[in-house]
Specification:
Elements: E1 2-3, H1 9-15, E2 30-31, H2 41-56, E3 62-69, E4 72-83, E5 88-89, E6 96-97, H3 102-115, E7 136-140, E8 159-163, H4 170-174, H5 184-192, H6 202-205, H7 228-241, H8 245-257, E9 278-281, E10 284-287, E11 307-308, H9 310-321, E12 325-326, E13 329-330, H10 334-340, E14 357-359, E15 364-366, H11 369-372, E16 381-384, E17 390-394, E18 399-404, H12 411-421
Parallel strand pairs: 2-4
Antiparallel strand pairs: 1-10, 3-4, 3-18, 4-5, 6-11, 7-8, 9-10, 12-13, 14-15, 15-16, 16-17, 17-18
Length: 426
């Protein structure tokens, strides 16, 4: 079914605006009047205006936005619709498929184990997963169909392999410099040894990745590993901690932070709060085949498996802004968060370098907001999800921001950042 979003969505958006006095109580973040934390209530209204423009233009169906400043909740608002076909208004506790915003959560889990001495950043991955030692690297062959080559057909050109110059490390995976499932050769070959049964777990799949070549020599460059790199990291969490991935995250991160609606699948009891995923087509917004309720209950993807809410993820971000602690619960030490948000890879980008941006341990870092075209403070860090979700932490302005949508329109986040920055009074 194809769905067109018209200006009539504005009426639903107006009904779903949430006043601060009616916000639900968060487990750990105290509410505040915006002026008490140096923000303008009137100017914060431009966040809704920015979102509404995207709704009116048919880019998205709805959103939830949340902002904390100086450790207190200053803005939480639901906009538009969470399901167009049923005309269901967005709700502030709506559940979203956050995709790659899973990666910073896995990054924190790994760093917790680093602090405990169970994992080292320079550890070879083969220490935990022996099958991922002595890997090979794909090298493109000239022309197509060369003798002895692999690949070809309608995909990447044929290739041969050479030994990797060294083992990939935990830090390589955290910074997307491993070459594992990071390009046309490695993605295709990793796909051939991917999930073979619906009941496959990380323990089943991850060792098979040793059969797939790397895209490049470890550490040679930045190239995004959309899923498998962080799947490997989450398997390392399992091996090093002795706990299943979902149990570790629930007991060590989600429980302590009060993230009650964050998990690897949406149980039946919360399905009424699940936002429908839409994709843009020439004929308008179309309901996507990939919906939140279909998330696996056996394969816990560290690359993109979590579902969450705006307020849950805001608490995760506030913990990082606080230097690893939230309301008396410490997950990381301040120096570890400082390392996580440092520029470790000076230049990265999808296909070409992104000016003003660098990459840390599982997060993007804004080195130069002017060069990057971001309206945030220098040193801000965060990441996105494939369906348009976004979070950022601005240590200069003491801000955590979360944008939850379910259609990949990344300009929405830039517009919300801009609307927030102009609301800062001091």
């Amino acid at each position: 079914m194809r769905t067109h979003i018209h200006r009539t969505a504005s009426a639903f958006a107006l009904l779903s605006v949430i006043a601060l006095v009616t916000l639900p109580a968060l487990a750990s973040i105290e509410k505040a009047n915006p002026e008490d934390v140096g923000l303008s209530t009137e100017r914060l209204g431009r966040i809704h205006e920015a979102i509404q423009r995207h709704i009116d233009e048919g880019n998205i169906t709805g959103a939830v936005t949340a902002v904390s400043r100086r450790g207190r909740l200053a803005h939480l608002e639901a906009h538009g619709l969470m399901d167009v076909e049923s005309a269901t208004a967005m709700r502030d506790d709506a559940i979203f498929k956050i995709m790659s915003m899973t990666k910073p959560v896995v990054g924190v889990a790994v760093l917790m184990l680093v602090e405990e001495g169970k994992v080292r950043l320079r550890d070879p991955v083969s220490r935990f997963i022996p099958e991922l030692g002595d890997l090979e690297v794909a090298v493109a062959m000239p022309g197509r169909g060369g003798r002895g080559g692999r690949g070809g057909g309608d995909g990447p050109p044929p290739f041969y392999t050479v030994p990797a110059s060294r083992d990939i490390t935990v830090q390589d995976l955290l910074t997307h410099t491993s070459g594992l499932a990071s390009g046309p050769f490695s993605n295709r070959e990793a796909g051939r040894v991917g999930r073979q049964e619906p009941s496959d777990t990380l323990a089943d799949l991850i060792p098979r990745l040793g059969e797939a070549p790397l895209e490049f020599q470890p550490g040679d460059r930045w190239a995004y590993s959309a899923s498998r790199g962080f799947d490997v990291l989450l398997r390392i969490v399992e091996v090093a901690s002795g706990l299943p991935a979902d149990q570790f995250l629930r007991e060590r991160i989600f429980g302590p932070l009060g993230m009650e609606d964050t998990s690897f699948w949406a149980p039946e009891s919360v399905l009424p709060r699940v936002v429908t995923v839409y994709q843009r087509t020439p004929d308008g917004l179309t309901r996507s085949r990939s919906q939140t309720g279909a998330t696996s209950q056996t394969y816990f993807s560290g690359g993109g498996g979590l579902v969450s809410t705006a307020t849950d993820y805001l608490q995760f971000g506030q913990m990082l802004l606080n230097g690893g602690e939230l309301n008396g619960t410490r997950l990381l030490g301040p120096k570890t968060v400082e390392l996580m948000s440092s520029t470790i890879v000076e230049e990265f980008g999808f296909g070409q370098p992104s000016p003003g941006l660098g990459f840390g341990l599982s997060v993007q870092v804004v080195k130069d907001p002017v060069a990057a075209g971001y309206r945030v403070g220098a040193g801000s860090f965060g990441w996105d999800g494939a369906y348009g979700t976004h979070f950022w932490i601005d240590p200069v302005e003491e801000i955590v921001g979360v944008v939850m949508i379910q259609t990949p329109v990344f300009q929405v986040s830039r517009d919300v950042e801009n609307a927030l920055m102009q609301a800062i009074l001091d």
